[in-house]
Amino acid sequence: MLAVARRLRPDLRWELGDATRLPFGDASFDAVISQAALMFFGDRVAALREMGRVARRVVVVQVPGRLAGSAGYLALADVLARHAGDAARDLLGAYFAVGEPALLHDLFERAGLRIARFESWVGATRSPDLDTFLQHS
Predict the structure, then answer these.
(1) Span 25-82, pLDDT tens digits
(2) DSSP label of 67
(3) CB under 8 Å to 100, separation ≥6 — which residues?
(4) Burial of 17 from C-beta contacts in 10 A (0-12 / 13-18 / 19+)
(5) Partners of 33 in the beta sheet?
(6) What is the pTM of this model?
(7) Structure letter (DSSP) for residue 18
(8) Exposed (0-12), middle (13-18) or buried (19+): which is 50, by Cβ within 10 Å?
């Protein structure tokens, strides 16, 4: 991911670090943004706590919602299970692991962060065919 990021934005400084021990001082940034990553951190509370530590003003976290609330991905998960087994379905399901609003609120509270604004967006992913969808997902 960093190699791609460096290629796309060579004008920015990219740092490799552990989300639970960010290599930055307290209040180093005005804002910390995590896009579609929280579900992959081994210790989500520690990662959120670290985001709060290095942010002066705001922490923004974007995650996909519940798999059960996403008809298209749920159908894909069912196809995966039928053709590749439950392990493949579980792998896709991991992407949606923190999509439950109550869980997110709990994680933030345990990290000592207050949610000032919580938004849910409902929409659809549209692709002209399955190959295109799989290439861009």
Answers:
(1) 999 999 999 999 999 999 999 999 999 999 999 999 999 988 888 888 888 899 999 9
(2) G
(3) 66
(4) exposed
(5) 60
(6) 0.81
(7) B
(8) buried
